[in-house]
Amino acid sequence: MNVLVIGLTGGIGSGKTEVSNRFAQHGVPVIDTDQLARELVEPGQPALLEIVTAFGPDCLDERGQLRRDQLRERVFADPSGRRRLEAILHPRIRTLLQARIANITAPYCVAVIPLLIETGMIDLVDRILVVDVSEAEQIRRVLARDGITETQAHRILAAQTQRQERLACADDILENGADFSRLHQQVAALHERYLALASIKAS
């Protein structure tokens, strides 16, 4: 596999989507594991059947779609439930991610993996790019975006790798404050760097 794989990660509310969108605007293929997870829980998929078996039919709506928000709230309040859900989804996400990477023909791709460190998928990427922001800013953004309570937001943060541990694993760090122009400049600089590294890897 000659394609250079950049693992993009960061805590909830850090701005991973904004960063991945900017890479996409540079023509870089982006594989988002959250989207892979959505594909895996579509009606009729084996993963969804396992989730219903584990958590009961009330986790589905009247159309047979997974009630994602309801299930998220449930598992973040119950660590054993979260581990059960992860055991169903994470191996499948890993397999699907590997398949998508294998089909990439561009010099490099960005794999958005919010739980990159937690799920042990580090071996699938060549470099780790962490989008970093303060915890206070994470909470503010999540409350504004998701309409959840502060308690729920803190539970989600607590379930993720601690900020300092994430930064310690990083090959590259993007500081994502309020200045989007600065963020875009950082992405543009990294794009050129990754193209150079991809050329070295392919040679």
TrEMBL record:
<keyword id="KW-0173">Coenzyme A biosynthesis</keyword>
<comment type="function">
    <text>Catalyzes the phosphorylation of the 3'-hydroxyl group of dephosphocoenzyme A to form coenzyme A.</text>
</comment>
<dbReference type="InterPro" id="IPR027417">
    <property type="entry name" value="P-loop_NTPase"/>
</dbReference>
<dbReference type="GO" id="GO:0005524">
    <property type="term" value="F:ATP binding"/>
</dbReference>
<dbReference type="Pfam" id="PF01121">
    <property type="entry name" value="CoaE"/>
</dbReference>
<feature type="binding site">
    <location>
        <begin position="13"/>
        <end position="18"/>
    </location>
    <ligand>
        <name>ATP</name>
    </ligand>
</feature>
<protein>
    <recommendedName>
        <fullName>Dephospho-CoA kinase</fullName>
        <ecNumber>2.7.1.24</ecNumber>
    </recommendedName>
</protein>
<keyword id="KW-0963">Cytoplasm</keyword>
<keyword id="KW-0067">ATP-binding</keyword>
<comment type="similarity">
    <text>Belongs to the CoaE family.</text>
</comment>
<dbReference type="InterPro" id="IPR001977">
    <property type="entry name" value="Depp_CoAkinase"/>
</dbReference>
<comment type="pathway">
    <text>Cofactor biosynthesis; coenzyme A biosynthesis; CoA from (R)-pantothenate: step 5/5.</text>
</comment>
<keyword id="KW-0418">Kinase</keyword>
<keyword id="KW-0547">Nucleotide-binding</keyword>
<dbReference type="GO" id="GO:0005737">
    <property type="term" value="C:cytoplasm"/>
</dbReference>
<dbReference type="GO" id="GO:0015937">
    <property type="term" value="P:coenzyme A biosynthetic process"/>
</dbReference>
<keyword id="KW-0808">Transferase</keyword>
<dbReference type="GO" id="GO:0004140">
    <property type="term" value="F:dephospho-CoA kinase activity"/>
</dbReference>
